[in-house]
Design a protein that fits this description.
Blueprint (H helix, E strand, L loop, with lengths): L5 E3 L17 E4 L4 E4 L4 E8 L7 E4 L4 E9 L7 E5 L5 E9 L15 E5 L6 E10 L6 E2 L8 E5 L2 E3 L4 E5 L5 E3 L2 E3 L18 E5 L4 E5 L2 E3 L5 E5 L4 E5 L2 E3 L1 E3 L3 E4 L17 H5 L26 E6 L6 E7 L3 E4 L11 E3 L2 E6 L3 E6 L3 E7 L3 E4 L2 E2 L11 E7 L4 E8 L2 E3 L11 E3 L2 E6 L3 E6 L2 E9 L2 E5 L2 E3 L12 E6 L7 E14 L11 E3 L2 E6 L3 E16 L3 E5 L6
Parallel strand pairs: 1-3, 2-4, 3-5, 4-6, 5-7, 6-8, 7-9, 8-10, 9-11, 10-12, 10-13, 11-14, 12-15, 13-16, 14-17, 15-18, 16-19, 17-20, 18-21, 19-22, 20-23, 21-24
Antiparallel strand pairs: 25-30, 25-32, 26-29, 26-31, 27-30, 28-29, 32-33, 34-39, 34-41, 35-38, 35-40, 36-39, 37-38, 41-42, 43-47, 43-48, 44-46, 44-47, 45-46
Protein name: Right handed beta helix domain-containing protein
Organism: Natrialba chahannaoensis JCM 10990
InterPro entries: Pectin_lyas_fold (IPR012334), Pectin_lyase_fold/virulence (IPR011050)
Length: 564
């Protein structure tokens, strides 16, 4: 591991790029730095941004130290491990950490590529991992087999999925796995990299000659042959919990172990980077700041569960309204995604190859699904057409006598509500965007999702949403974004994939007759998409921090495009 350019935990804050809410956490943009955490130091409430393709290492050099409330955001494309522990003695607590966005196998400094957490051979400290979420890392989730030489690793309420080699790699006689989960359902392990045939993704891997304690934990090997591997004469005492998959080695002693594991994220374990950084919890009253939560805040669970299960073939947008309260949930292995939300009782979001879930009271009133995803209510698949209309919202633009041009953007699908097709010279409707003009008439549209932006290019008009007049300035930007970015697939039959990050605001566009595809995703300022023999375009304001293109498409950036 290269330690050039290292900083200490105390001075690392100079590398921050500003937080979304500075009262909750600070954001550190990865640029290859090593942040040292020394004796007695605490590193907490940090969002580490990996979306620019760079890496960062948290190097724990001293005992009696703490890493708490840290979220690593974005697919990792670097090398090595994110957290490396070298402390020669003392206790180390790593608590409420999210490493669930995974990594690609691009690094070669370590066998099998990059990993999440590494207990170094020089370490001899006692580490407790509590409420940690580690998914999609080629070279082990928690690589802690060096505890065979001294020290220990204890896992409490941790979650691992689709990690190469293993999730929990342990060795010391005092190592323990308690109330934790690990499983595999993807033979390619994590996102964007190929698996190994010689090293399958075992949930648990135990070093030869070691004895490990496992309590109330759940493991499943998925398509791989072994859920637990006991190397050499290694042994493990497993009490409670469940295993699905075989055990390699004869040293497993079982007591009250089921064959039907529960594979959901343990309560209190973060399901997103922002959730971890801000110190939030997963459907529990447990505090991650060392104090017990206020018992008065703990109310009864909402009676119904709605689960939206995505499909990797395409993006699915959804929206629903319930009769009673609605809250996000991590039941059934769902995530609480940053793109999901609840606005005035209406829940909405986007899924691809993951799940979103919500608990709610009362009856389900409306449900709109755009894409191949499937919706389950209390475990039963439901038909969205049985609940309300496909495009449940009505937007009216009422002219005031003067020519007025406008642009509307929704986070969903929008259509002109008229008997005839719109005149191309007057109204342009493309997926989630409308451009048109009115004078005395009223134009009516139906849409799904949330109203994201209403912008008047010139003139003014009254705007009504579901029968209530609204203030357009409260929706998105009040001025049109000035710059255009175009990805042109040309006449090629070969698709091109792209991703980029804007230091500012970005929205989809039909500039130069570009298509607006539902499978192209904008997540905060980070954009991902695919283009074949057509155009994708975006309006933006600010600078392009990072751009990656795979394929033959051409890229054109037009600054101040609206003035040309």
């Amino acid at each position: 591991m290269k330690l050039a350019g290292a900083t200490t935990a105390a001075t690392a804050f100079g590398a921050t790029a500003g937080a979304a809410n500075s009262d909750d956490y600070e954001t550190i943009t990865a640029n290859g730095q090593v942040i040292r955490i020394g004796q007695g130091e605490t590193f907490e409430n940090k969002l580490i941004d990996l979306t620019n393709g760079n890496s960062v290492v948290l190097l724990v050099e001293g005992g009696n130290s703490v890493i708490r409330n840290v979220g690593f955001e974005g697919l990792h494309r670097g090398d090595g491990f994110m957290i490396s522990i070298t402390a020669p003695s003392g206790d180390v607590l790593i608590e409420n950490v999210y490493l669930g966005d995974g990594s690609t196998k691009e690094g070669e400094s370590f066998v099998h590529g990059p990993g999440a957490v590494f207990y170094h051979r020089d370490a001899s400290c006692d580490v407790t991992f509590r409420h940690c979420n580690v998914q999609g890392w080629p070279n082990n989730g928690f690589y802690c087999s060096n505890t065979a030489s001294g020290g220990s690793a204890r896992f409490e309420h941790c979650y691992g999925k689709n990690n190469g080699v293993s999730t929990y790699r342990v060795a010391g006689g005092n190592d323990a796995i308690v109330d934790s989960v690990a499983y595999n359902d993807n033979t390619d392990y994590g996102p964007g990299w190929g698996g190994y045939t010689e090293d399958s993704g075992r949930p648990v891997w135990v070093w030869p000659g070691s004895t490990v304690s496992i309590e109330d934990s759940h493991f499943a090997s998925g398509g791989y042959p072994h859920a637990i591997i006991l190397r050499g004469n290694a042994t493990a005492q497993m009490t409670g919990g469940a295993i699905s998959g075989s055990v390699q080695g004869g040293g497993l002693n079982r007591s009250n172990v089921s064959s039907s594991p529960e594979l959901s994220v343990p309560e209190g374990t973060p399901t997103s980077a922002i959730e971890a950084a801000s110190g939030e919890t997963n459907e529990t009253g447990d505090s991650v700041n060392g104090n017990d939560a206020d018992e008065d805040d703990d109310g009864p669970a909402l009676e119904n569960l709605l689960l939206v299960e995505g499909d990797e073939s395409d993006v699915t947008r959804y929206e629903f309204e319930a009769e009673g309260d609605v809250e996000p949930s991590t039941a059934e292995g769902a995530t609480i995604d940053a793109a999901a939300g609840i606005d005035d009782g209406v829940a909405y979001g986007v899924v691809a190859d993951w799940k979103d879930a919500f608990r709610f009271d009362g009856d389900l009133l409306t449900l709109t699904v755009d894409g191949p995803g499937t919706v389950f209510v209390n475990g039963e698949e439901v038909d969205p057409s049985d609940y309300g209309e496909d495009l449940p919202h009505v937007l009216e633009i009422e002219g005031r006598g003067a020519p007025t041009s406008y642009e509307i953007t929704v986070d969903g699908t929008i259509e002109l509500d008229a008997d005839e097709n719109p005149d191309d010279e007057v109204t342009t409707v493309s997926g989630s965007t409308v451009q048109s003009s009115v004078t005395n008439a009223t134009q009516t549209f139906r849409f799904s999702g949330a109203l994201a932006d209403v912008t008047f290019i010139d003139g003014e008009a009254a705007v009504f949403l579901d029968g209530e007049e609204i203030d357009p300035s409260e929706y998105g930007e009040t001025e049109l974004l000035p710059h255009a970015l175009v990805i042109d697939g040309g006449d090629s039959d070969e698709p091109s994939t792209y991703s980029f990050r804007i230091d500012g605001t970005v929205v989809k566009s039909d500039y130069r007759s570009a298509t607006i595809d539902d499978e192209d995703i904008i997540d905060d300022r980070y954009v991902r998409g695919v283009v074949d023999n057509e155009l994708d375009a975006y309006w933006f304001e600010g600078t392009i921090d990072d751009f990656t293109l795979c394929g033959p498409a051409a890229v054109d950036v037009q600054y101040n495009a609206r003035n040309q």
